Fold each of these.
Amino acid sequence: MSADRPGVAGVVVVGGGQAGFSVVSTLRAGGYDGPVTVFADEPHLPYQRPPLSKKAHTEPDELRVSLVPESFYGERDIELRLGDDVVALDTADRTVRSRAGLSVPYAHLVLATGARNRPLPVPGADLAGVHAVRSLDDALAVGRALTTAQDVVVIGGGFIGLELAQVARARGARVTVVELADRLLSRAVSPQLAEHLRRRHEESGVHVHTGTAVQAIEGTDRVRQVVTSAGTLPADLVVYGIGAVPRDELARDAGLAVDDGVLVDEQLRSVSDPRVSAVGDCARHPHPHAPGLVRLESVQNATDQGALVGRRLAGQPPAPYANLPWFWSDQGAVKLQIAGLRAPSDDVRLVAGDTPGRLAAYAFRGGRLAAVETLDWPAEHLAARRLLERETPVLADELTDTTLGGLARARRAAEVRA
């Protein structure tokens, strides 16, 4: 009913990740009965990416990250083409051509191509023992390397790097994190929370070097050491995560507007062609929680955007994408959670919980709560999400002597009395 029925135009999804899966599962749940084809460049069934950097695994069966069994797709008449990515897009004829030479027409195309790791621009980055983690195969390669690694250098102090640092520590390796910026998670969390997080990593035995540039990776057959602006570090395993770049070249080559991602409107339709949508890491879009355009990299964003487009294509009334962004990162024993989007100019207030280790950073913009970051405080994170999703703003004065959890309880009590 899709790629196996040449000439019948339906929905074609390019990308077999979380966003693409969300599109097609929502489509079928919404009653869409036209052809559905998914092109995925990896040979694996669509899977969850978050577990890849949070644990060390050496065999695929250990991960169990597939989103659904293979039978899910057959039962819903979804043509899933694994290991066959799209190499050309013709928006005039509304067709895609795959690497295997298959040409498929579409009534609507959804780009869910995701992002790729930013390459490491130093000599020696291609040595054996140097890894990035983006795919299932990447994660398995790192897991196998960790069975014998003794000195691990992690390049990049973002979510992926810090998660992997703790994975390596749990395996007993000596671990050093090297970050070019002057603090960890410089694009993701406030300076105040980042400092507390750094201490937690150092307490676990991870050495953290911020404001440090990697100049070269050296070795003969495989990595032996990492040369930095602060000195040379021994290394028999290097793992790097220095950001991601959107996979928007297919759209660009087809003449669609791109700028650090496929440019889409508030309904996630291409600004160049209403018969094309983009979702997930590859989409750059307007958002009510941020000025200008944003490109968000998270499971929540990929899932919610895919569902929104799936509902629209199934015939439901179009709606703007306005879901509150939220993120999480499990770094060893530390759980970092974020609700909302903090801006560098926001006023940040740190609040300690009633249990050691619990911490929240409230970010205020114009006197209103805009984002909340928490360490080991899931209840406060959930309260933040509930409050930020409502139209009634949270004012800074309301949090002078209470937490968000306390404020949420007070508001509920007031509603009951009313």
Amino acid sequence: DKITNIVMMGMGEPLANFDEVVEALKRIVLYTGISKRKITLSTAGLAPKILELPGKAPDVNLAISLNATTDAVRDRIMPVNKKYPIKTLMEACRRFPLKPRRRITFEYVLISGVNDSSEDARRLVRLLRGIRCKVNLIPFNPHEGSELQRPSDVSVLAFQKILTDSNLTALIRESKGQDILAACGQLRGRHDKSGRKDVID
């Protein structure tokens, strides 16, 4: 099948390899003919590099792996937050230039008892106020060695309703690749027996 869209995400932070990623984007566009508008770069939140991106790779779509609404929770599941806390990340997103009809995508992996409460949803609404965006809600994918759990369908739908009732576009996404531990949050791999605490990719 013909490739029509490309998403840069997964194990490894694209913006931590900034120059090479920009060069790769240029080559993809040059040699495949895929429009930059069909390419999405997902980041865990390297705020300074987010602001560099438009000057180096204009028209590429931006996605943010947010996954929490407080620094306490995000520090735990996304250590990058200790360097670039939520306030800094949101300020970068507000300064990110968007062309008409373009939006930032915020990815939010829902984890039972961690970030899926109604108060989390209301905080998310407040965080995203004033940002042209959409939200992808992704129920957590449980796997061996993780203490984190997937929320119930009822909880997921209730979370989504709070967002949509506040005029946010919020879609529920199911990750592919669960059978090979390649879905969201599973990219530690089958052979990682190090006992590390849960970290979201």
Amino acid sequence: FLKLNPNGRIPVIIDHSNNGFAVFESGAILLYLAEKTGKLIPKNYEEKSEVIQWLFFQMSAVGPMMGQANVFYRYFPENIPAAISRYQNESRRLLEVLDFRLGQSEWLGSKYSIADIANWPWVRQYDWSGISIEGLSNLQRWDKQMSNRPACQKGIDLPESSDAPRKIDKGIKVKNSTVTT
């Protein structure tokens, strides 16, 4: 697996149509697939740059901060109020940045894009981190809009059963995707 991802973590995809080319890291995978398919990313350089900026915002800010908020709020063995407060407050600030952007545009870019796909899983889990989105009406609208998308609904429904982790561990075909270990 380390040949596919030197960091030894998921996600990783293997593009069998491109000589088994492996791509790791969520943002890199989204960008690779968008570029390869010509979907979910604008062709215009300014609009494309805008999408990439919001993608990187998730990778460098929303994901790491909300991830830490989750760890200290839910999982860390010791209760460290300063850490919980720090990460929840910074996560809330980042959600306010998204709310401001979504007050200017229906989507993070000019159209639905990989930027929305990357940010939404974190936004929809705000309460798991102990964060409120009260007063963030643009973010709430967008969250609802994203939640109603058929592809997002499919993602919410996974895993379909308690067998999914076992199936993934064994590299068994789950739906239309093969997970390699």
Amino acid sequence: MTIVENSAAPPNERAGLSRRHVLALSGAASAAALLAGGAVARAAEIEELRIGCFTEPPSLDPHWQNTAASNSLSQHIFDRLFHADENQKPVPALAEGWKVIDPLTWEIALRKDVKFHDGTPFTADDVLFTFERSQNVPNSPFSFKSYLGNKKLEKVDDHLIRIRTPSPNPILINEIMTVSIISRKVGEKATTDDYNRGTAMVGTGPYRFVEWRSGQHIKLERHEGYWGNKPEWMRVMLRPISSNPARVAALLSGDVELIDFVPPSSLERLQSNKALSLSSKVSNRMIYLAFDHSRARSPFVKGIDGSEIDNPLRKLEVRQAISKAINREALGSRALEGMGVPAGQLVPPEIFGSAPELGPDKFSVADAKALLTKAGYPNGFAITLHSSNDRYVNDAAVAEAIAQMLTRIGIRTAVETMPYSVYVPRATGGGPEGLSQFSLFLYGFGGQTGEASVALRSVVATYDKDKGLGSSNRGRYSNPEVDKLIGEAAQELDDTKRAALMAEATRISMGDVAVAPIYFPVNYWSAKSGMTYRARTDERTLAMDTLAG
């Protein structure tokens, strides 16, 4: 058996761009072709790669949602200006490079040899259209405004764009690499339903869309006119297999060649199988508890006797009690069977902009009970914890384990789980005034920029739809001091100062228990013998990162 060990780039590389990258046009076009089109150019071509995927994207629209499943699919079909490598470091793709004109003005040079799958040449018009459209998809649960807001794009010529920002933006390249570039010609007339039907699935990427049968498969075929190195796999089939035993069985029987999100219960079995390879990496995704901070009465909170009570989650001591009641080490070893690293902040401590000294909250039943008493709830209260049951590894089991831990300190906790496709709209804005329907809920956030700023802006910044802030702040936490630090960090070009500002915003928001970080997943992929998967921090599963021979 081949085991590819977890590796991580140094923090300064994980952050994305060094100053030397920013100050001149990049010469990394060959690296871009390598990353986007295939890791190695091989003489032997392999007919088909079948991938057993834990989840299926809820929509084929590349701008509908920003999840690992959505991004995994879209990166096969649609390129980005910059792709993220396995450690989320930007590598030029449709952009050949960039240049900083002044602190508020950037120029991005576009490749001239690119065509969409329908033969239409790729130009700056497609980029401008994409940036506008991705921020305004009707009825989408997500907006790319959190990455693209406050950026003014100008077309200099067909292959040069200028981006102006109202203030210095040190991570502009990291932000714009989050968005899949679509065809203006196709997209102007297309709806999300057109993407779901496949008629609008026209990109510049290494694979063409062939077919989607929801719940069964997504079929792709290699784009022979691709501008980069052609991937070795001629055809790719993505098979959603949400059942962990069924996904593992499909790999063992040869029905698929690769699976993602190897379940904890099968890890030892696959490790000992000489006919398989295994690769892993700690994800940058934080799994956390979100709290209803905003409502005076929260819909799923009651007194122990079933009476209506004021929302206890608005009290710091209650949130502290909940966090201290959770035995993160036990969750990692039992519910996750070793596939989770306890979390104490929004990003792993090696990520640029973290507060490295900030560890997981110390587990203490006695301290948790004392905090509840101090908050005025010596007998506790009743609450429902909501969670998905098919999005994260063992997510329903994690929710059940947390509920048991909270019940031990006097918070009588029921659990309600549901499919992720149902969960997201309810958690995001299904309640009155666009608030979450839930009071306490398990969620995940993985920043796409490889550093801490997006997690801060999305999860703990005060919600402001127009500014693209707080897009994942479903509990509506708000602290002006945190907002001030996040705003200052967003404009600070000095890396040392910027890291310090983000770290302080993290310390304050975690001191407030804005959310309760639980763990960072350790993700595993397994492939048949002779193949290896290049594990990624962003959890994407790509045919281009699957190496044969």
